[in-house]
Design brief:
Rossmann fold; about 180 residues; about 20% strand
């Protein structure tokens, strides 16, 4: 199987965020596979205009999304939702999202970011993306990882593997179909 290109989008931009620990764990998980090649996109570094006006940063972000076959969003849950920086990123890009599969790695307190993931599934559908069924959620995230960024959460490890396999399947199907018939959106 040909490897797919995967953008891992780190959604939190708050000071003191735990998102990099979660994203780095996920990227290590991806690196153990030979069917996925991942690129990390940290929204803290993206400098996307909140008013969605055209900008070099927005064009670079859209190009990065356009260059990959699939996306995984690593997101916290803030107030039962996902971060505003992620909403800005989602709205900055238009056509490059279309036809791509998307997966979610969420984290938070007792809910593990699951409410943010459910909201993002609706947004992904509106962007003409395919949200894969399996996702990863870390409850009580600050206690889920050791000082080296490793977790012994076997459910998360298993879910990550299943999600990556689903992303690969959809990304491959999308690439094959796009060659024969461009996405009609």
């Amino acid at each position: 199987m040909d490897p797919i290109g995967l953008a891992v989008v780190l959604a939190s931009v708050r000071p003191g965020r735990v998102g990099p620990v979660v994203a780095d764990w996920f990227l290590r998980t991806v690196s153990e596979r030979n069917d996925v090649v991942a690129t990390k996109i940290d929204l803290m570094d993206a400098a996307l205009p909140a008013d969605l006006s055209p900008s070099p940063a927005g064009e670079a972000f859209a190009a990065a999304i356009g260059a990959v076959d699939a996306v995984v969003v690593v997101t916290p849950e803030y107030n039962h939702g996902y971060p505003g920086a992620l909403k800005t990123a989602l709205d900055t890009v238009k056509y490059q999202w279309r036809g791509k599969p998307i997966g979610f790695v969420s984290y938070g307190g007792l809910g593990g970011g699951l409410r943010a993931t459910e909201q993002l599934r609706q947004v992904a559908a509106e962007l003409h993306m395919v949200a894969v069924r399996d996702s990863v959620g870390f409850h009580r995230v600050r206690t889920a990882f050791d000082e080296n960024g490793h977790t012994d959460d076997s459910a998360a490890v298993d879910a990550a593997g299943r999600m990556l396999s689903q992303l690969h399947w959809w990304a491959t199907a999308s690439k094959v179909q796009s060659r024969a018939f461009p996405y009609p959106g």
